[in-house]
Amino acid sequence: MQIAERVCRLGTETAFSVSAEAAAFASSGKTVYPFHLGDMNIPTPGNIAEAAIKAMMDGKTGYCPPCGIVELREALAADVNASHNTSYSAANVAIQPGGKPVIGKFILALMNAGDEVLYPNPGYPIYESQIEFHGGRAVPYGYLQRDGELRPDIDAMARRITPRTRLLIVNDPHNPTGAACTQEELERLAELAIEHDLYVLADEAYFDIRYEGTRKSLASVPGMLERCVILYTFSKKFAMTGWRLGAAIGPKDVIDVIATLNVNDESCSNHFAQYGVLEGLTGDQSPVRGIIETLRQRRDTASRLLNAIPGVHCFTPQTTFYLFPDVTEAMQKASLTDYERMRLTILQETGVSVCTRLHFGRALAHEDRLYLRFAYSGMDVPDIAEGIAGLAHFLEMRDS
Amino acid sequence: MQIAERVCRLGTETAFSVSAEAAAFASSGKTVYPFHLGDMNIPTPGNIAEAAIKAMMDGKTGYCPPCGIVELREALAADVNASHNTSYSAANVAIQPGGKPVIGKFILALMNAGDEVLYPNPGYPIYESQIEFHGGRAVPYGYLQRDGELRPDIDAMARRITPRTRLLIVNDPHNPTGAACTQEELERLAELAIEHDLYVLADEAYFDIRYEGTRKSLASVPGMLERCVILYTFSKKFAMTGWRLGAAIGPKDVIDVIATLNVNDESCSNHFAQYGVLEGLTGDQSPVRGIIETLRQRRDTASRLLNAIPGVHCFTPQTTFYLFPDVTEAMQKASLTDYERMRLTILQETGVSVCTRLHFGRALAHEDRLYLRFAYSGMDVPDIAEGIAGLAHFLEMRDS
After folding, report:
1. Which pLDDT band holds residue B234 (cuts at 50, 70, 90)?
2. Cα–Cα 20 to 30 A to B54, which of A208, A308, A342, B215?
3. Which residues in chain B touch residue A270, judged by CB atoms under 8 angstroms apart?
4. Residues B198, B229 contacting (CB under 8 angstroms)
5. Is A165 helix (H, G, I), strand (E, B) or coil?
6. Which residue of B has its CA nearest to A256?
7. Contact by Cβ (8 Å): B241, A272
8. Residue B261 vs residues B107, B207, B248, B267: alpha-carbon distances, Å
9. Nearest to A110 among B3, B49, B241 (CB)
10. To probe the interface with A, which of B16, B48, B64, B244 has the most A CB atoms within 10 Å?
């Protein structure tokens, strides 16, 4: 068939090909340490599963309203209001089959062809893909090292705003770096958005994965409630990535458009699963704390062992389930400075499967450091320790 | 927020507002007979629910591949090959969160802006909406009465083909009329598609809802396998509309594009539910026969009682779960010839809630008959009988 022209502008998640390679390597009988995978090997809390099964048995197997059952929309608005200091109601919430659909729907609802959209790079590759697929111009902003951690380069972002800039995508907390905006950074972002009349996608997929302290949302900065759409997902906080449930939360006028997109795209999200997450939000919170505790132990192990490798510098974020170590010196010593060669050599020699910086976009002009992304959400502590020990041994041998 | 220009071209299912009105009427304490609803009040077969729950408990709660688990893709290819006489493999199948997403993805994958797309009218309103939303030109073809039933107007379709025509949407069996193409009609459609190099969306959402005989698919006509994408859904045959599972089935090149759209749009469909429908396809088929038998009894009751009303002429289709009676004379006698006034008067006076022809597109120029659509999938036989008896009584009173 002759494919439509727009498809040549459609990107993908190249991390999927890393998964395929890791699977091929494993099928040859070798051990793989799947640090490439942003998935979780933690069971969904039992109370969520039970509530979903009860709803299934009670006949919640027919259609529900396009934006989801009203009890869930109300509970989610209340939950987000409590953590965000916002004033959302059910009318501001459209349940989605995952957090990801919010990216495309935000762009379809608010971007005209030819509009410029600022997006993070390194960042989740679907932003750039959806912007360009639907005829916009994707304008990247980067991250800069400061005191051993990466921070969004808001100065560069400001310089790249033109009269055609219409939308800004902020991923806070940020995949892959684990950066979480300070209050000052949120205020600077809000200032730019208000000054240049930008609408903002606040991708908060990792907002509730928080090991210490509290988080603030861009939506809670004065003047931002009316120009922010929050990408919300149940996937991470409830360890239910494969259930596919999330939400768009924002001003009623854009949520109404997203509701019509729901009618057009998928009618509604899985009906009985919505009763599961309703229990997740309103019932016993100890399973959620258990998920965080499990992830914290993994993070601490991975971060400690990575930082013990000569030439590896790993910031330890208080959020997300990723580490994004600067491996420049270690890789120079090992004569592995081509990203794909580095990744494949590490996989073949150690079974450690990772994504590199390039799985999160083309490198920007100023970049001179090398980064790998380690996801620790899909592996138990002993496997994390074994994998990184093997990597350390390999690098030591290669250096000598 | 300032909404994007394309949104002014986005349509919806106006049937949702009928649902809202019916709910409001019911909340005032009155009985509603929900004939407007294309939903089912039949439980999902127990073996499907059990298999899904087992998968959930076995940890199938993380991501699965974007096109679905390979066991299901293989089983579905085999199942469709058996009923369609086709030669699909897993590579031709992309699992979706419902049948509906196939409409938008087919259009995004194959239609360029400005292309003309032939679509059925009366027909499912999302075709027109998605064509125009993504910058195409929606060109309707109608249905003509012949021997008491409605048939697709293939002559009109042929006349409307221009050098800009690129895609053809065929809904066979057809909602709302219940028309199912004869072998001769399928061959004529194939001839047009091949002659004019059209790619075809074969929306077969009701293919397996079959009360008598066997059905042929447009995809099985020689030359069509390579230019047909089948919209497949588990929703109707397994009474699981609210689970949201379906598939796109077609040539590998377009399925590959749809796979990339899956990565961009929703990552994957619900993981554990796929084990449910795998059991549905490969396990005990008696629950599926039970669903058909239940629907048949409802169809027979509804059709018999509607045809007993003076001035109502109702064809009894061997497929779908809709009746589309010609009510022209009955409504003229009742002085109700404005569709919306007719519908609201019937709702208020009898509690019978229906869709009219206008919920399936703007009337075409030649149309001079009035039609209502009765869905019998969401009501038990006694309620169907009571509702239509009330309608008959109202029309009799109104006539006298």
Report:
1. very high
2. A208
3. 97, 242-244, 270, 273
4. no
5. strand
6. B3
7. no
8. 11, 25, 12, 9
9. B3
10. B244
For A338-372, give the secondary structure using H, E and C. CHHHHHHHHHHHHCEECEEHHHHCCCCCCCCCCEE
End-to-end CA gap in chain A? 55
Residue A42 half-sphere exposure toward CB, CA atoms < 13 A: 27
| Burial degree of A109 (CB within 10 A; 0-12, 13-18, 19+) | buried
Element (H, E) at B12: none
In single-letter form, the type of residue at position A305 comes to L
Predicted local distance difference test score (pLDDT) of residue A400: 67
Contact B265 A3 (CB under 8 A): no
- Dist CA A244 CA A98 (whole Å): 4
- Using a CB-CB cut-off of 8 Å, the residues of chain B touching A110 are 1-4
Q: Chain B: residue nearest A102 by CA?
A: B265
Ramachandran angles phi, psi of A171, nearest 5°:
-110, 100
- Position of tokens 């062809």? A113
The DSSP 8-state label assigned to residue A117 in this structure reads E
Cα(A218)–Cα(A199) distance, rounded to whole angstroms?
12
Q: What is the pTM of this model?
A: 0.97
Considering only CB atoms, which chain B residues are within 8 Å of A44? 56, 61
Position A279, amino acid = E
- Testing the interface with A: which of B1, B50, B124 to mutate, by most A Cβ within 10 A? B1
Q: How wide is the angle at C-alpha A396 spanned by C-alphas A391 and A398, nearest 5°?
A: 95
**Partners of residue B175 in chain A, C-beta under 8 Å:** none
Sheet holding A137-141, edge to edge: A93-96, A246-249, A228-233, A199-203, A165-171, A116-120, A137-141
Q: What is the pLDDT of residues A360-371, one digit of tens each?
A: 999 998 899 999
- Asked whether the beta carbons of B151 and B144 are under 8 A apart, the reply is yes
Kindly state the tokens that stand for B126: 């999302």
**pLDDT tens for each residue of A190-201:** 999 999 999 999
Which residue is associated with the tokens 């957090």?
A: A99
Provide the terminal-to-terminal Cα distance of chain B, rounded to the nearest Å: 55
Phi first, then psi, for residue B222 (nearest 5°) are: -50, 135
Written in H, E and C, the secondary structure of B206-274 is CCCCECCCCCCCHHHCCCCHHHEEEEEECCCCCCCHHHCCEEEECCHHHHHHHHHHHHHHCCCCCHHHH
Token pair 């219940």 is found at: B178
* Main-chain dihedrals φ then ψ at residue B150, nearest 5 degrees: -95, 135
Interval B16-61: pLDDT, tens: 889 989 999 999 999 999 999 889 999 999 999 999 999 999 999 9
How many other CB atoms sit within 10 Å of the CB of residue B311?
A: 16
ipTM of the complex: 0.97
With a pLDDT cut of 90, the percent of chain A lying above it is 94
